[in-house]
Amino acid sequence: MKLKNVLLEKEGNIAVVTINRPKALNALNSETLKDIDAVLDVLENDNDIYAVIIRGAGEKAFVAGADISEMKDLNEKQGQEFGILGNKVFRRIETLNKPVIAAVSGFALGGGCELAMACDIRIASEKAKFGQPEAGLGITPGFGGTQRLARIVGLGKAKEMIYTCDLIRADEALRVGLVNKVVPLENLMEEAKAMAAKIASNAPIAVRMCKDAINRGIQVDIDKAVAIESEDFGKCFATEDQKEGMTAFMEKRAKNFQNK
Ligand code: CO8
């Protein structure tokens, strides 16, 4: 697999994906989006990876948005195609068969904030800044921002951020629920890896079923949602890890999950 702007590293059962265009503050051009798409093919099919971390290269930015130089001269059809590409890749992250943590060091703007929101969990450094500055550039958020921001922080705050284009700092992002945790910059990756390791210590198939039930359930009414939960709950009983987890509890010993 030949990647130009994205790095993929594995550490035990954890994968670290780095968006690697530091000179452009890791801005997402179509080449980078296609790299992320290719990395998702690998992650989806690698049964030894139980959790994923996405970060930006360098400390200044997670991702400073979609690439403005690439978008500047697009016509309506091309703009729509670029939006569809970003949305397709981000939806793949959101529905990936393992949890994804965004480790946000600095700017997470526009497509960068949208990338972080497509992840399951966001950990921010104290220096991180979030925002959707698109309206100031003459466009709407186009990689899911109009949809996911409102789902995460509520309609009022999402509309305020999107209409004003104001950036918010990490402490405000924590207050409104946009991030799960704020840590000193020097501890960011350590904290992200510790959380990934904690997730990876649980039964991987059960974690995957939890993600599936939460993601699908949030989109439908409560009757359909609990039916989805029952379906995923039932599937767990067909796994060896369910037998192992419960047997280990009864035998008062450590669990040894096999992702089976
Ligand atoms: N695209 C392209 N290049 C960028 C981007 C970007 N989003 N952000 C930064 N860069 C480049 C700069 O042009 C600069 O390049 P060069 O050194 O060649 O001049 C380099 O990165 C460093 O940036 P700055 O010199 O601007 O660094 P500062 O410290 O002065 O400022 C900021 C940092 C505040 C982050 C500033 O770079 C900035 O405002 N960047 C743009 C942020 C932004 O508006 N992001 C939203 C983009 S739109 C978007 O994401 C839409 C998503 C949906 C698309 C749907 C398509 C249909």
TrEMBL record:
EC number: 4.2.1.150
GO biological process: one example: fatty acid beta-oxidation
Enzyme class per UniProt: lyase
Pathway given in the UniProt record: Lipid metabolism; butanoate metabolism
Family under the similarity heading: Belongs to the enoyl-CoA hydratase/isomerase family.
Subunit structure: Homotetramer.
InterPro entries, per database record: ClpP/crotonase-like_dom_sf, Enoyl-CoA_hyd/isom_CS, Enoyl-CoA_hydra/iso, Enoyl-CoA_hydra_C
Keywords: Lyase
Domain of life per record: Bacteria
NCBIfam families per record: PRK05809.1
Molecular function, one GO term: 3-hydroxyacyl-CoA dehydratase activity
Protein name according to UniProt: short-chain-enoyl-CoA hydratase
Matches recorded under Gene3D superfamilies: 2-enoyl-CoA Hydratase, Chain A, domain 1 (3.90.226.10), Lyase 2-enoyl-coa Hydratase, Chain A, domain 2 (1.10.12.10)
Catalysis: reaction(s): a short-chain (3S)-3-hydroxyacyl-CoA = a short-chain (2E)-enoyl-CoA + H2O
